[in-house]
Design brief:
The chain is mainly alpha-helical. The protein has a domain of 100 residues. It has 10 helices and no strands. The relative contact order is 0.11.
Length: 150
């Protein structure tokens, strides 16, 4: 079986060759992080940042203007969709696999919960959490991702 060779003059670019433009800290960190935190993130190679910074430095307004279907509104009830997205991102970032352990950690550790800066500091039940995450919808998550990388 012969492999097809791709010439150097191909019209597509490989993703690893994409150059990400550098942004100065003052452009997006003004008033959000202290100068000491900015220096710590820059100078400590093993630092991945803090969970709260993930939510401070990214725009979550997409979820406030999102038009929900009647069924989604019914499922979310008094929960804000933005809060559920933040909780789910945090769960994935911290490596929690099971919902029940994640909800237990949120209920027992106020410092963890406060890092999310939720509109509604109410934690959903384990049974309800899975329904809420599913109701967000993959199309909405792809739209949010598109805005973040824009």
């Amino acid at each position: 079986m012969k492999r097809k060779r791709v010439s150097a003059s191909s019209s597509f670019k490989l993703p690893y060759r994409t150059k990400i433009p550098a942004v100065q800290p003052g452009e997006f960190m003004a008033g959000k992080l202290t100068w000491a935190e900015i220096e710590a993130l820059r100078n400590f190679e093993i630092s991945d940042g803090y969970l709260k910074d993930l939510f401070l430095l990214n725009n979550f307004r997409f979820w406030n203007i999102l038009e929900l279907t009647y069924k989604q509104e019914e499922i979310f009830g008094s929960f804000y969709i933005e809060d559920i997205v933040k909780l789910e991102i945090g769960r994935c970032k911290l490596g929690q696999v099971k919902f029940n352990q994640w909800i237990h950690d949120l209920e027992s550790d106020y410092n963890l919960l406060s890092a999310f800066e939720l509109e509604n500091e109410r934690v959903p039940s384990v049974r309800n959490y899975g329904r809420l995450v599913t109701a967000i919808g993959s199309v909405n998550l792809r739209g949010f991702h598109g805005l973040l990388v824009k």
